[in-house]
Amino acid sequence: MATLEDISNIEIDNKPPAPVQNINKPSVNRWNISCEHFRYKRCILVLICIILITIIITVPTVLVHKRRRTTTSTTTTTATAITATATGATIRTTTEVPLYFTNTTKWKQNGITIFSQDDYDEFRFDLNPMYMDNNEAIYLGEISKHRVIKIKLNAMNFSIVADANDTDHLRAPTDIIVDKKTDSIIICDQGLRQIIRWSRKNVTHRDIMISEINCNGLAMDDKGSLYVSDWLKVNVSHWELGVNNKSFVVAGGNGNGNNFEQLNQPHFLFVDKDYSLYVVDKSNHRVMKWEKNATKGIVVAGGNRAGTNLTQLSSPSGIVVDHLGNIYVTDTNNHRVMRWIHGAREGSIVVGGNGTGNETNQLDSPSDLVFDKHGNLYVFDTVNQRIQKFCIESN
């Protein structure tokens, strides 16, 4: 036990206290270093996020622009194809007809005479067929003269491209089309009961494609198959041409009559892109549509006996169908061209219908019609023996 004396003997050290050392300095340094690493990692992370966001935004934009360019390219290609095929406006198939009209497209009512047979030869009254090729030249079949002539637009002359010289080679061409693949004219030679191919390069070269057929009208689809209307058998046959020609009936063939499975004097034809067949059923005063593989037709224009009302036709002949399924037909005995909107119960007058005569707004028994690539309408005006051009007014 310590005594008071012991306590009094204790010497007090008066030295100043030693400075306190910072024992936490290493920890602080480590903390600072950790913060720097965190900030660095955070910057890297932010940078990566920015890059990812940029990629996410940029890639879809590039794809959209690429798709737009592709769509534009496709549209341009389609438009080019339309323009290219536009010149073949009268081949009897909509795959060759670029008639991108509307239901309200109109034509000027006063026509311009671009060709008159009376200027060149005697007066004849033939229901002559027409065809317009890619160079906007009209081929006209002159039935009584047993020849086909080529009329260049904007030129007051014509050339003979198929001529019998004698009637042993060609007699009464009732319809014509141009086969671009073989660069030849295919002629419905009614007088000699045959379908004949006539070269455009060598007018002396010709060959018989189909014989022993009472042809009235022709059409060709995009596969090169022929459709032929036979006035005696009262049907339309489909022909696959080759070493051994094959054919089968696609419309009519059930005798003369006005039932849906019958025809009465089938005349001009038209085949659309879906291989539906349009038949001008002349003596039934109507246009019939036979869809592919159908056994019965559908009345798509006329069919209410002969008459002058808008629901009627009278001995129609030439026909063209546009991309909407609207029908343009020469209403021969009513001296007018009619348009029947797809699904409509009555038609409307396109040109003519002002009585018979030779005025610029009149027609007299028009037999056929064609359109050029601009949409202008050409009509063969039978009794006036002229081709009238009606310029497109609005589309």
UniProtKB/TrEMBL annotation:
SUPFAM superfamilies: Calcium-dependent phosphotriesterase (SSF63829). Gene3D superfamilies: TolB, C-terminal domain (2.120.10.30). The chain crosses the membrane at residues 43-63. Pfam families: NHL (PF01436). NHL repeats lie at residues 307-337. Keywords: Glycoprotein, Membrane, Repeat, Signal, Transmembrane, Transmembrane helix. The keyword RNA-binding does not apply. InterPro entries: 6-blade_b-propeller_TolB-like (IPR011042), NHL_repeat (IPR001258). This is NHL repeat containing protein-like protein. The lineage of its organism: Eukaryota, Metazoa, Spiralia, Gnathifera, Rotifera.
